[in-house]
Specification:
CATH architecture: 3-Layer(aba) Sandwich
Radius of gyration: 17 Å
Order of helices and strands: HHEHEHEEHHEHEEEE
CATH superfamily: Vaccinia Virus protein VP39
Strand content: 15-25%
Shape: globular
Oligomer: single chain
Structural class: alpha/beta
Number of domains: 1
């Protein structure tokens, strides 16, 4: 499969600089920062969770950024939540936003493309845009494979992995994750029609971990 090509969005330097600015904005103006993929996608994910995930289950958000997806889940009654990001500024921002709301959400710094330990038996793993950023890194293929290995290691057998991407189609995601996960469902996202064909700007796919 052809790689996407390197971009500054795949570098830690870009995200460190961005979140340094966003922490300052939050402390000065109370601005929590950007909602990746927009509010409509977030609402669709939340509604899917309400119908398909038990509130007692453990949920891990990979590349949580400002933590707003977990904060929205907390508001919906999901309390066993953890967010990780390789950018310390993102974790600082997420902790400060959750702290202001007095929400008990765990946040830690973690590079999902490194050798990871300390996380296991997670029921549901979330990714909204992190795999996209990894796919734009300098050693994208190698980093994607490390990512998939770690996600699998974090999860319980038959656990759910929910990934939302604007760079990969549902078919491409299924192909890339087929060795460790099986397609379970998809979360409907806005579609467009062009030249008689229907497509989606964003793909949101639910996988189940394969039991070895």
């Amino acid at each position: 499969m052809e790689e996407l090509g390197e971009s500054e969005l795949g570098t830690q330097e870009y995200w460190d600089k961005r979140y340094k600015h966003e922490v300052k904005n939050f402390r000065t103006h109370g601005d929590v920062g950007e909602v990746w993929f927009g509010d409509d996608i977030v609402v669709r994910i939340l509604r899917w969770f309400e119908k398909n995930v038990d509130p007692s289950q453990s949920i891990l958000d990979l590349g949580c950024g400002n933590g707003m997806l977990l904060i929205d889940l907390y508001r919906e009654g999901f309390k066993n939540l953890k967010g990780v990001d390789y950018c310390q500024g993102a974790i600082t921002l997420a902790k400060e936003i959750a702290g202001k709301e007095e929400f008990d959400i765990a946040f830690d710094t973690l590079d999902i493309t490194a050798d990871c330990s300390g996380i296991c038996d997670i029921d549901v793993v979330l990714d909204k845009g992190t795999y996209d950023a990894i796919s734009l890194s300098l050693e994208a293929k190698e980093n994607r494979l490390k990512y998939i290995k770690n996600v699998c290691k974090f999860m319980k057998d038959n656990g759910l992995f929910i990934i939302t991407s604007c760079n990969w189609t549902q078919e491409e995601l299924c192909e890339q994750f087929e060795d460790a996960f099986v397609y379970y469902k998809h979360i409907p996202t806005p579609q467009f029609k062009f030249g008689g064909k229907v497509g989606s700007v964003v793909s949101s796919v639910v996988f189940k971990k394969i039991v070895n």
